[in-house]
Amino acid sequence: MTTRIYYTEPYRRTFDATVLSVDAVDGRFHVTLDQTAFYPTSGGQPFDTGTLGGAAVTDVIDREDGGITHIVSGNLKAGEVLAGEIDWARRFDHMQQHTGQHVLSAAFDRLFGVRTESFHMGQQSSTIDLAREVSASEIAKAEDDANRVVWEDRPVAIKFATAEEAAAMPLRKESGRTGALRLIDIEDYDLSACGGTHVERTGAIGVIAIAGAEKFKGGSRVEFLCGGRALERFRTWRGALAAVQKHLSVPPIDMAASIEKMQDDGKASQRVLRGFQEKLAAHEAQALLATGSPLVVVALDGWDAQGLKAIATAATAANPDAVIALFTTTSPSQVVIARGSNSHVDAGALVKELAARFGGKGGGKPDLAQGGGFTAATAELIAAVKAAAGGS
Ligand SMILES: [Zn+2]
């Protein structure tokens, strides 16, 4: 057994301890102490980091036998007494998130009778999984009530009870544990069996902000941020909004409408552009056929695949003997091949052949086919099409 200093003194950052055992495992050292302030990963809360005798503590494991294993980078000696120090910024962040979770879970429980099935504290944010799906308005009400309790700055007490005593108490969630139970009591709001580290008054949580919710296993998974993490997320979002605002020049509240309008305008412009393209395509087709040769293989600057398709089909409609292969001048390039009704060239097979030979993809019908992703030089592609189409 390792005496857990954090059980009764969650604000202790430094401590002295005697090394009970050291095992070398894969270049690291597994160290057991007579007592520790290091929190081991358990109950949804990640482990503490810090130093032990000056060596870095990189993981802390809760063992089944009641002991705690510290994974340490430097070799320590059994029997020596050394100083431990936990990374307080990391620990305090965990305390804000964990106590915030108790308050938020209690809010859903008290307001709507919705139980929290599990809790996970991640690197950026935390989640609770609720037993049933909750609505946006329920989430808002729980968030409001939880923050009311934060701002009322209620005491958070640590208590111990036997399993029998606890059975008679109004615990939010019955505990499956036997023996002595550690209870976290948020005054007149929540009583839960928990081995985690907590702030001593709810005010230290700062704020509880819900970042999002999604359906999960028949219930809801609610993502939230407390205290410093909420501020950090606010900064990130403020930066992102400011970047968007530079382009849109409207306040955040109007951004969605502004983007929707831009998209509508974009679609309308596209329609106008397509109309002009169709008209221009007919002229381009005449120019291509003016050379007199039924086989036309060229790259056309300023046209996309859709425009090339309009030109090629206009040309083959005007001259049933024509075979028209048009490349974009983009990189990678795209190709459209069309053939008139008198021609026996298989446009689809031609595009597939190009893709097989030069990389890229595409295909289509014998009279009209399309391909893209060609990185070979346009001259090389044109020569290949001329050789294949001219020979058939
Ligand atoms: Zn807890």
Structure description:
- The protein is an alpha+beta fold and 392 residues long.
- It is built from nine helices and 20 strands.
- A six-stranded antiparallel barrel has the order 2-3-7-6-5-8. It has a five-stranded mixed sheet with strand order 16-17-18-20-19.
- Helix 2 packs across helix 3 (136-151) and helix 6 packs parallel to helix 7.
- The longest helix has 35 residues, at 255-289.
- It is elongated and about 100 Å long.
- The model has no long low-confidence stretch (mean pLDDT 94).
- The protein binds zinc ion (ZN).
- Residues 43, 98, 102, 192, 194, 196 line the site of zinc ion (ZN).
- The site of zinc ion (ZN) has 6 residues, from helix 2.
- Strand order across the largest sheet: 2-3-7-6-5-8
Cα distance, first to last residue?
87 Å
Percent range of helical residues? 25-40%
Q: How much β-strand is present in the residues?
A: 25-35%
Unique ligands: zinc ion
Shape: elongated
Q: Tell me about the biggest sheet?
A: 6 strands, antiparallel, barrel
Stretches where pLDDT is under 50 for at least 5 consecutive residues are none
User: How many strand segments?
Assistant: 20
Order of SSEs: EHEEEEEEEHEEHEHEEEEHHEHEEHEEH
- The assigned structural class equals alpha+beta
Q: Helical stretch count?
A: 9
The average pLDDT score comes to 94
Task: State Rg.
Answer: 35 Å
